[in-house]
Amino acid sequence: MITFESSWLSWTHYTAIALFGIGLVGFLLRRNAIVVLMCVELMLNAVNLIFLEVAIRTQTHEGILFVIFVVTVAAAEAAIGLAILLNLYRKQGSLELNLFRMLQG
Length: 105
Known about the structure:
The protein is mostly helical. The protein is 72% helix and 0% strand. The protein is elongated, with a radius of gyration of 18 Å.
């Protein structure tokens, strides 16, 4: 049984759009690697909010399974990304994204 509200876009959609927009702007404009990773996590959380909202509206479990998958991938991405950034900071003493150019072969 699918139940929808009278308006297709609810407050959760607007919140998710705002979170994704803030994350995208931060990802495109900032040059600090940790801030960029945080912005990627913010965008992933916005997508998770949409998945949960759709799962609640349609009363299915697929959205929740997607959220669990995205959270798992985000945790692995954060762990690997922070390990790379820690090594970069130890080598260069800064976390500016321009320093990644020196890693090119």
